[in-house]
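To close the chapter, one final illustration. This time we ask the reader to focus less on the individual chains and more on the assembly as a whole: which components sit near each other, and how the overall shape emerges from the parts.
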Amino acid sequence: MIVLIGAAAGLALAILLPVHIPPEYTKYAALAILAMLDSIVGGIVASMKRSFDMRVFASGVLINSLVAAGFAYLGSKLDIDISIAAVVAFGARIFQNIAIIRRLLLNKYANRSKIEESN
Amino acid sequence: MKLKKMTRAQIAMGVISLITVYLIVCQLSSVHMNTAVATPEKLRVDELQTQLTSEKEKSADLALQLAETQQSLETYRSESASSDQINNQMKNELDKANTLSGLTDLKGSGVVVTLSDSSSSVPDASGNYEQYIIHDGDLRMVLTELLGAGAEAVSVNGQRIIGTSAVRCVGNTIMINDVKIATPFEITAIGEPGTLEAALMIKGGVADYLKSWSIGLNIKKQDEVKVPRYSGIVNFKYAEALTDKEGENK
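The assembled structure is written out below.
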């Protein structure tokens, strides 16, 4: 719930205080967005499983963002798009976590026999 | 304790989602804006057209401004010249110098020479069209011939030929005085019309040469032709007048 409120607040803030990201930094911003989306989805999974750990969450947001930014920077210096590694890793994790959420929700609301984790 | 922990988790995720959405929206608008700032290659033709029109307007405005400034300069000159006789003499000198350097509109008897690209549709079996269009060299030949025959003032498509004028090929157009001109080329020359025409028509001369490429050449003798003044700015950055003494030492 609070996630949605936060999202709405973010939208409002962006409309009230728009910041223009210069073209050379849009890549980093995109990676930051992915890192945070990954953290949010991961956080939702953790809180649904009642295993949310603030330290894991906070350090995950910070370190993942930093490493992704570092990859992008290194990639631009080496002229190899290493940031793709971050994009793939985050993307795969987001899909994975969404799959877990899906199953958790299905198990919660569809009172049927347990859905196998392998789907 | 457990509930408190869960609330903290919710708040933390709420904050992160706030930042994320904020970033996403900013990113979207930035990407939109950044791609809107188009590079010249991305600009569509009509945008370029608009740009061209506005630049042309600007250039017309500037030309008007230049004309106005020149006029006011002229007023100052005539005012200062009318003050006494020495000044009057100086004004005459200045007028002469202006006439010589192409800063005044001139009229007089002369010829109008029109050059147009080859009219034959299939000029060559080899399809070599390039030989059959007018090149800067063709124009230079005509100009040199006219000046050699005593033309006192010459202009091409309204561009006065002065001491620093260059007739050159830039891309697929010809530039005179840094102004692009295009076919048909109308060369106006003030001088003795008969002499000027003869200079071009002489056997084995310019007219014959151009005819061999079937380039259209039309010479009209006229009692009065007008040659406009040089419309650019004469600005010597490197050249300096040599004093008499320095001249002797050389």
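Residues 23-109 of chain A form one domain. Residues 21 and 29 of chain A are 8 Å apart (CA to CA). With these observations in hand, you are ready for the problems at the end of the chapter.
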